[in-house]
Each structure stands twice: as C-alpha cells, then as structure tokens.
Amino acid sequence: MFILCEKPSVARDFASALGASPRNGFFEGNGYTITYCVGHLFELCYPEDYDPKFKKWSLEALPIIPDAFKYRMSPGTAEQARLVLDLLRNNGGDALVATDAGREGELIARIALLMAPVPDTGRFRRFWVSEALTADVIRKGIQDAKPLSEYDSLSRQAFARQRADWLVGMNISRLASIGNPPPPWSVGRVQTAVLSAIGARNEEVKNFVAVPYRELQAQVGPGNQALGIFALLENPKTEKTAFFKGDDEYLAAALNYCKGKPVGSVDAKAEEKRNKPERLLNITGLQKLAFKRFGYKPEETLNIAQALYETHKCLSYPRTPSRVMGDNNVELFREKFELLKGDTLLSSFCDPSLISAENSHIFNSAKLEDHHALIPLNKLPESASEKERNVYNIVLESFFTVCMGDFVFNEKSLRFHVGDYVFASRIREVIQYGWKESRPKKSSKKEDDDDDDDVAEVNGFDEDNCLVNELCVLEKLTQPKKEFALDTLLAFMEHPRGEGEARLAGLGTPATRADIIKKLFAAEYVREEKKRLYATERGRFLLDMLSKNDHLKKLADVSNTTDWEERLARDPEAFEREIKEYIASCVKSGAGSATFQRPSLGACPLCRRPVHETKLGYCCSGYKEEPRCSFIIWKTISGATVSTNDAQLLLIGQKTRVKKCRSKAGKEFEAAFALKGAEVEFIFKK
User: pLDDT at residue 504 above 90?
Assistant: First the structure.
C-alpha cells in the first residue's frame, strides 16, 4: 500500500506503526511505501509564468484571470516534490491519502495528485484522523478509511479558497501599486480586512469623547460596617447604575434621604453556578497567553512551539485549531499525566478521575478539527532555551488545570428598597474552589477565564435587618474600547463581530493568523507602540484609497470577508466565479488617482529635508536622493523603543521621557534621549 503523509514526523509515526524502514525521502517495508510532503510542495504560478508580459505591472494587463490555474514546485522542496511525484506515478496498487484532516491537508494532497498526474483515483482512500497518532489509532484509521471521492467537496472548497486569495492578491495589489511609490502595495482577502479592523479601532478611540457620570454607592449591612457589602443606586430611567447630566436632582434626593435609613425590603435571587476550567489550548490560545505573559509575538510563539514539537519532541502538533482531545485519546492523556505529574505542583490539585471518556470537556471527537489540542508529550529537556521553557510551561499548566474540579458558587442578586429608592448588588458564596484553588490568591485580573471577578465574595451575609451605613458619590467617565494588542487582535480574528456586535465567521485560520499579522507589519501598514497596534500613515492611505471605490471597499469590510467564507463553504464553484467577476469589476472601476506621500516627522538636522519613518528607524528622505544624507534615528536604542512621537520631539530639539535602557555589557540604566547634532545622546538623571 502506498501512503502519502503531510509531514516527515507523521510518516515516521506510520512507519513505526506499520513496520516500514527509512529510505531516502520515504519509508518502505512490510508491504507499505510511505512518503510525505513537506507542507506545500507546490504553489500557484506567478502571473509572469503564464505570460512574460505580466512581469511589468500595468493597468492594461489587468485583470489577470487564468483560464486554468498552473502550479510550480515550491522553492527549497523540489527534490522531495520530484520523489513524491515519481512514487505516485509508479503506484500500482491501493493508495491512502493521509495528509492532515482538514481543508489545507486536503489541498496539499490533491495538488500532488494533480501534478503527477494521477488520472484515476478510484482506488485511493482517505485516512481522516484528528487524534494523536498512536499505533492503534493509525491501524484503526487505515481500517476505517473511506473512498477519497467522499472528500471531493472539501477539495473543491480548498482549491476555490486558494485561487480566490491568488486573484485578489495578484490583481488588487497591482491595481493599488500602479502610480504609487514603492514598495509594492500588498492587498489580501483577509489581511486587508484585519488592517481595516485595526484602523477602525484607532479612529473609534481617537474620536471618543468621554462623558462624565456619577454612581451612588451605599454600604449596606447591619450596624457593624465590617459585615456590610457595597450596592449601587439604580437609575429608574434606565434601570442601570449610571447617572448622567439631568439626573442630578434624583441622585441628590437619594443621597439626602437614604443615609442611616433601614432597608424596607429585599428582592433576593440566588443561583448555583459552575465554572469549568478553561479547555485545553489551541495555537491561538497559546499565542494570546504567550503575548500577555511574555510579550512574544504570534509568529515567535508559533516558531517556539514548532521547535518544541519537531526538535525537542515534547509538544503535540502546534498548528491546531482544536481545544479538545479525541474520544480515543483517554489512555494517551492518562499516560502523559502520569509521566509529567511530578514536574509541577499543579498536579496536586488535579482529580485523576476526570481523565475519562465521559468527560466531554476534555474528550470530544465531535468538536475535533484537524488535530487534537496542544498537550505536552514528554519532559522538557535541559537544553531548552528560556523562551522554549516559558511556552512549554503554558501548555503544561493548561494540561493539568483541565483535570481540576469545577469552581462552584452561589451567586445572589440583591435589590435593597430604601423608601422609593433601590440599590443593587451581587455577591458570591463559594461552595468549591476547584481549579481556582491552584491560582495565587492575590493575582491580577485573570487572563484565561471569563467569570465575573467584580462580584464580591461574601460568606454568611444576612440581607435581613440591614441599614444604609454609608453613602459615597463616585465620579466617573465613560471609557472607550482599548486599542488592539496582539492578543486581543488574535481573539478578534478568532471571533470577529459585525454590526450590532453580531458574531461572524473567523478571519483566517489558527495556522495562518500569525502570518497575516506578520504581513501587515512587513508591508508597513501597522506599527506597535507600548504593545498597542496602530495603522500607519501608509496603512491608512491604503484604507482611504479602497474606501473611495464601491468595489474595492468590500476588501476592507470584515463582514463581507467573513460572508465570503460562508459562501465558499456552501458553493465553492459559485464563490470562485463571483470572485472572478468581482476582480473584473474592481479593475474596470480603477483604484483612484491619489498618490501616497510619506508623512514628514520633521526636518533633518543635517540637510533640512523631510524625515520619514521606515521599518527600522526615522530616516532623512535624502538617503536615496542626491546629495545623499545618512541621518537616521534608530527605532531601538540600547534596548529602548523610540516611538514616532519621540522622533518628533528629538527633531524639534526636545528630549524624550526617561527610558529603561541596557548597555552592551548588559547593565541596566535609565536615561532620556536628545539630539546633539545628528547623534542621539543620553541625558542621565542628576
């Protein structure tokens, strides 16, 4: 039997389970020939591969819509690609496609079959398993494999999505770039929607006008204030606790009347609630936590996880969208639990009886996608780096936490009637701490569970015979949403919201989101400042250019992008036809006549020409003009970040705020920056 896998590590698992021996680029023996793709062995051809005239970017050459799409070998994997094609052509018996269980895995295999070509796949079957590939799972998966034709619909979706991304990227990027200065302007079906979300959030925060409001807080309880709780006055107009301009008279009357008054009656409603521990991590969850705890960018976390998987072999396959294990993975999970429980104190809080097929919070094949959730597979070797240890420990913590009991509590909603006034409060009485018992008692706001931490934990509160002991007016301001950070952007891409906060299909996939964000930075559309993300002038110009065209602006519409995903799943052929028609309409309508002018941050101290922001620093525009000028302020100086605002201050002769720096010898120090001539100097504290 011939078996085609996606990755060398998977092929090794098959060979081990089936008794095949390693050869050069494949495994053979015991009646099996097993080989592997190294990810994508083939990629769609570039426009100039269809016709040399497309090498020059011109409006006359658009739209570029091939009659039939062509593929070429991906750089760096040509030798393995030729081997896979030879083995496919010479396969004379039964064949098994065992690439990853998902749309991308299906695409990788189908392109290889197309390139061989394999004219008749009637004897091909599809191995479709998302669980850990133990020997038993592999043998059962082969036994249960279905005809490849049953996955033709998924194949059509995969091809349609790939071609749509090519059509948008190749055509609209050229359309936006023609007439504008280099580097080329990158436009993508998903990345442009993500850029739009960042830009929209920037504008929302920038234009937000804070509105003052008040809350009246009462301390309610028996005469002994130590036993009281806090409650807030309800606004009868809104049934909420905020009082805006025009509500002053009501609030003042309540303040005057209620102090020291007994509570007349109480509306009490109690409900027992159970909060389960967070599910196991997928790659997006790992990336969010690694950024929040250690500041690692999504791509960096993915690379670290990949090294833990491939090099150290102590982590399961990282590019997974799943947060559960398969129903058949109970013994695997228990084996790893026993192997690793001595490595962390967290294991002492676990309940091993939860490692059971009946626990669908951990084991649920119905919710499994492509691969099971991230789990540790082995002990971390001593040779691992600090960053590898940090990422591994996040997964280790998740693995043991999911085996802990529920956090169980009674939540009581209370409404205290004092004359005609009502004060509202919620309190919580803990029945069982469960997984929360493993958390530090005095920790900051939780990062990975979503129960309401603003609810006071009170045991034994008796709402009968209460007084209003104290009253306090709280002066507050309405708050805007926060700018996206890398972790909150990942969360948005996973669960975007449309108009009216309607939940939409995800933007990108867990495996591609890090790359999409990387492309936004590489194209200089987005910058990061104090861990917050901002659309650059270049990014805003692109969004503005697209917004002026009724066809192009769809690319910047998150709702439209997610709607495309849903239409792709329903009818891939119709979706591909729609994209081709859309591209033709975009080209016909044109991209507009605006030309991007890179904004000036100030005048160069050497030649007085404009200083512009670049990827690595703030450069004189004369670095490409004659006479050439080499002035630059680097974005990182002695480990400290120089922001655009810092650069503007330096260029007008002012100093920056004091920054934390590190010398070449590793010594930490604090200093402000100032320009002396064309050089940045340190201004130390006296």
Answer: no
Q: Which of 386, 401, 416 is the last residue of a domain?
A: 401
Q: Please give the structure tokens belonging to residue 185.
A: 């302007």
Residue 576 has, within 13 A of its CA and on its CB side, a CA count of 16
Q: Which two tokens stand for residue 100?
A: 């990853």
Report in angstroms the alpha-carbon separations of 218 from 33, 414, 473.
Answer: 76, 13, 9
Handedness of CA 297, 298, 304, 308 (dihedral sign): positive
User: Which residue shows structure tokens 């993500």?
Assistant: 194
CATH of the domain at 318: 1.10.290.10
Closest by alpha carbon to 420, among 268, 269, 261, 270? 261
Domain for residue 489, yes or no? Answer: yes
**Residue where one domain finishes, among candidates 477, 495, 516:** 477
Specify the higher pLDDT residue, 240 or 371.
240
Whether residues 193 and 91 share a domain: the answer is no
Q: What is the reported pLDDT for 457?
A: 87
Q: How confident is the model at residue 591 (pLDDT cuts 50, 70, 90)?
A: low
CA distance 142 to 136: 10
pLDDT value at residue 427: 93
177-216 pLDDT, tens per residue?
A: 988 877 889 999 999 999 999 999 999 999 999 999 999 9
Q: Concatenated DSSP letters for 182-231?
A: SSP----TTHHHHHHHHHHHHHHHHT----EEEEEEEEEESSSGGG-EEE
Contacts 24+ apart (CB under 8 A), 183-189: 183/523, 183/524, 184/57, 185/523, 185/542, 186/519, 186/523, 186/525, 187/542, 187/546, 187/555, 188/516, 188/519, 189/164, 189/165, 189/555, 189/561, 189/564
Q: Work out the average pLDDT over 315-328.
A: 91
Tokens of residue 111, six digits: 């392109």
Whether 320 is in a domain gets the answer yes
Q: Give tens-digit pLDDT for 336-367.
A: 999 999 989 999 999 999 999 999 999 999 99
- Residue 656: φ, ψ to 5°: -85, 175
Tell me the one-letter amino acid at 175: L
Task: With both helix axes pointing from N to C terminus, report the angle between 152-177 and 103-115 in degrees, rounded to the nearest 10.
Answer: 90
CA distances from 282 to 128, 370, 374 (A): 19, 11, 6
How confident is the model at residue 445, as a pLDDT?
44
Q: Tokens 């050869």, residue?
A: 23
CA distance 186 to 685: 45
CA distance 305 to 287: 10
Structural domains of the chain, count: 5
pLDDT at 232: 97
| Among the listed residues 285, 197, 189, 191, the one whose alpha carbon sits nearest the alpha carbon of residue 510 | 285
For residue 102, what pLDDT band results from cuts at 50, 70 and 90?
Answer: confident
In 3D space, the residue among 495, 503, 104 whose CA is nearest the CA of residue 320 turns out to be: 104
> How many other C-beta atoms lie within 10 A of the C-beta of residue 226?
6
The burial of 394, by beta-carbon neighbours within 10 Å (0-12 exposed, 13-18 middle, 19 or more buried), is given as buried
- HSE-up of residue 99 (Cα within 13 Å, Cβ side): 25
Q: Is residue 602 part of a domain?
A: no
The string of pLDDT tens digits covering residues 5-54 is 998 989 999 999 999 999 999 999 999 999 999 989 999 999 999 999 99
pLDDT at 449 over 50: no
- Rounded to two decimals, the pTM is 0.82
Residue 323 in domain = yes
Q: Same domain for 397 and 412?
A: no
Range of the domain at 656: 611-684
Confidence of residue 404 (pLDDT cuts 50, 70, 90): very high
